[in-house]
Design brief:
The protein has helices at residues 49-62, 70-77; strands spanning 3-8, 14-18, 35-38. With 78 residues, the protein is α+β, with helices and mostly antiparallel strands.
Length: 78
């Protein structure tokens, strides 16, 4: 089920919704089915070194083992 952005022609409401094959989406505000499909901006994958480093720092503050390698985790758990 793809996620689409729509603009309702009747009330001007912008929304996004999951659309099943063969289904006609309706505006959640007014119920209208006269909709214009909008272009959606893709989300960045979030794999930058800065994001990974920040996640590891947070995990270390919270005491998670996810910032350690498998060998380091084995040493800590013994």
């Amino acid at each position: 089920m793809p996620l689409y952005d729509y603009l309702c022609q009747a009330c001007g409401h912008r929304f996004e919704t999951l659309v099943r094959a063969g289904a006609t989406p309706a505006c959640p505000q007014c119920g209208g089915t006269a909709l214009d499909k909008q272009v959606s901006a893709p989300a960045a994958p979030g794999k930058s070194k800065a994001i990974v480093a920040a996640a590891r720092r947070q995990a270390a503050r919270e005491g998670h083992f996810s910032q350690y390698s498998a060998a380091e985790r084995n040493k800590l758990l013994r």
